[in-house]
Amino acid sequence: MVILGGVIARAGALLALAHPVWALVSQRTTSVSSSFPAAGNASYDYVVVGGGTAGLVIAARLAASGASVSVVEAGGFYETDFTNLTTVPGYAFSDPVLAPVEFFPPIPAVDWELLSEAQPGANGRKVHYAAGKTLGGSSAINTMCYHRATKSTYQRWADAVGNPSYSWNALLPYFLKSSRLTPPNWPKRNTPNATFSYDPTVFCSSPSAAACGPLQVSYANWVDPTNTWFSVALAAIGVVKNTIGFNSGFLSGAAYTTETITPDAIRSSSESSYLARALAQTTLKVYNRTQASKILFSGTKATGVSVTTGSLTYVLSARKEVILSAGVFHSPQLLLLSGIGPQATLDSLSIPVVANLSGVGQNLQDPIFFSVQNGLQTPSLASELADPARQATILQQYVSTQSGPFSSAGGYIGFEKLPPAARAALSPRTASLLATLPADVPEVEYLAGSFAGTGGGVTTIGDLSAVVLNPFSRGSVTISSASIADKPVVDMGWLSDPADAEVALAAFKRLRQAWNATALSAVKVGPEVRPGAAVQSDADILSFIRANAIQIWHASATNAMGKSAAAGAVVDWRAKVFGVNRLRVVDASVLPFAMPGHPQATIYALAEKIADCILADA
Ligand SMILES: Cc1cc2nc3c(=O)[nH]c(=O)nc-3n(C[C@H](O)[C@H](O)[C@H](O)COP(=O)(O)OP(=O)(O)OC[C@H]3O[C@@H](n4cnc5c(N)ncnc54)[C@H](O)[C@@H]3O)c2cc1C
Ligand SMILES: *[C@@H]1O[C@H](CO)[C@@H](O)[C@H](O)[C@H]1NC(C)=O
Ligand SMILES: *[C@@H]1O[C@H](CO)[C@@H](O)[C@H](O)[C@H]1NC(C)=O
Ligand SMILES: *[C@@H]1O[C@H](CO)[C@@H](O)[C@H](O)[C@H]1NC(C)=O
Ligand SMILES: *[C@@H]1O[C@H](CO)[C@@H](O)[C@H](O)[C@H]1NC(C)=O
Ligand SMILES: *[C@@H]1O[C@H](CO)[C@@H](O)[C@H](O)[C@H]1NC(C)=O
Ligand SMILES: *[C@@H]1O[C@H](CO)[C@@H](O)[C@H](O)[C@H]1NC(C)=O
């Protein structure tokens, strides 16, 4: 992960518009100006709140059915509002929007600028938690890793909501419908020691491109040489490169991951894929730079949304349904502001109660990660980007052949259940909590990353991270006033459950074992950089983790899907909010629990599935 220090400072220099992608976007939007209505009361069949990852899938599919649809999005077009930091894959990890620190560079053009509550389990730190405020939402600022969860994860989901339509077999059509895969470009990758095999049958194979989903999924057109050494290191501890990849319902071993990147090496977001197609082919109306402040009800029937563009406040009425897709923090915020949530919270802020739903904003699950670093003599994505002598060459490579470091967002990852020796140190309570997870659900993810080197033969600071995938800690989202002007109050609950600390400690030791691989001595330089040899005891390692762990931006489950409101669920298996009518929530907030690994593939598929549900119910 290249997210701190000098990288952020350097990013300040990248301000002007330079990539041809801007020309593309202005073509896309000016040719369809009727898609952007003027502010003022209007009625639609469906009003979608939030033009992010899930929201644009829903809006595009409903509009394609011939229904009248509008989508309300607080942000604009990231390609024109921000810099090529959002569009060029090589910048994905150096975008200053990621900064997970209390004092972060404000980036109002694409970010909500949320600052968390102090985390007692993490030395009382408050962190900036990036969340996309732009068309595309977090798919426009994420780090582009695309993969699916395991077969048993989806079965567990089906069991949790009491409906078989969440099984792997039932969801697979929606994974296919949302995406299209471009096979690896081996000549551009040009790295014989980094070949792999994968399973093409779990992607859309229709010869007609229009039949496949619009989201572009591909493998980077460049292999980071340092990642080939992380492949060796992980294999040495048993996390061996697999032959199938991470899209077939299995998460075990290591692999070069698929990424949401177009074949010509530009970020593929829900905006550049789904929205671009909908603007060209449907009558979808987009209210950009427009913030929803409240869902309006007649009794318990949702009738529309109160929105504000500039200084104008007006109502978008929904003849059929309102679909809330404002994301894991803002969907619970909007429900609460609209009178749906724990009665005590609503009463304390004098918000009239529409539905007393105790689960709104509860149950937040946020995986954390941390790393061990060593000096390496190998070049890497970070060292290439930081080397002035390489700039002209790598820019030329990107512009003329869409390859080289700028075309890559990293992408070597691995998954495992902790092996027996590591499990032996777990307390009985932690062992029994982990035993509640299905056999194919990994407990830890490993991520290969890098920072630029420090000279003296150190070309790269290799950064091997571990993610605690299934947090038992719980956080929450709530509100501090009855006004949309106040940001949601976000508490991730990091390391509040001791089981997470035990898994983190075990995972940290696995990182050191991987770094200790004999083969790595060929490229390692000097003693361990971080945390350094002085950190040895369990207590010292845990202090390091509490002081340094950060989010991987995969928070979920703040409006969990489930069987009943009494059990803490907020929506049913059709994503309908309990206790009211004509209102659904579709985004990361309705995941019933944290997906193992990176969630975006699942969120795209979920949105496709619920779009089908909505049309079937219409
Ligand atoms: C920095 C970062 C890196 C990540 N890396 C990865 C990765 O590599 N792989 C992966 O799988 N996942 C990754 N994720 C997670 C993944 O991107 C998110 O889980 C997913 O995009 C969330 O989708 P969503 O639809 O729930 O919300 P979002 O995509 O965030 O959409 C919510 C939308 O609602 C809008 N909105 C909110 N409130 C209002 C309002 N009141 N009025 C109008 N509009 C509003 C927002 O502006 C936004 O556009 C990352 C996330 C982040 C932030
Ligand atoms: C991104 O934009 C900056 C500023 O205009 C420019 O210097 C840089 O070359 C661009 N990067 C790429 C990969 O196009
Ligand atoms: C929305 O985007 C369109 C296309 O870029 C632009 O013309 C319009 O001014 C934007 N609306 C607002 C309120 O900024
Ligand atoms: C817009 O709708 C709201 C609520 O339905 C109504 O109070 C208001 O008068 C309408 N505004 C105009 C300009 O029609
Ligand atoms: C793999 O090949 C690349 C490019 O030839 C080289 O830089 C790297 O060191 C090799 N990695 C290993 C583990 O041998
Ligand atoms: C609201 O729901 C909670 C939990 O279901 C319940 O304990 C509480 O009594 C309810 N409040 C009212 C006023 O009904
Ligand atoms: C590293 O390897 C050496 C030699 O095999 C071994 O003695 C040592 O315990 C290992 N250290 C770790 C942290 O795995």
UniProtKB/TrEMBL annotation:
**Keywords from the named record:** FAD, Flavoprotein, Glycoprotein, Signal
Name a single GO biological process.
secondary metabolite biosynthetic process
Q: Which InterPro entries match?
A: FAD/NAD-bd_sf, GMC_OxRdtase, GMC_OxRdtase_N, GMC_OxRtase_C
Query: What sequence ranges are listed for the domain Glucose-methanol-choline oxidoreductase N-terminal?
Result: 132-155
List positions binding FAD. 553-554, 599-600
Q: Where is the active site?
A: 554, 598
Q: Which GO terms describe its molecular function?
A: flavin adenine dinucleotide binding; oxidoreductase activity, acting on CH-OH group of donors
ATP-binding as a keyword?
no
Signal sequence residues: 1-23
One Pfam family in the UniProt entry = GMC_oxred_N
Family in the record: Belongs to the GMC oxidoreductase family.
Q: What is this protein called?
A: Glucose-methanol-choline oxidoreductase N-terminal domain-containing protein
Q: Report the source organism.
A: Cercophora scortea
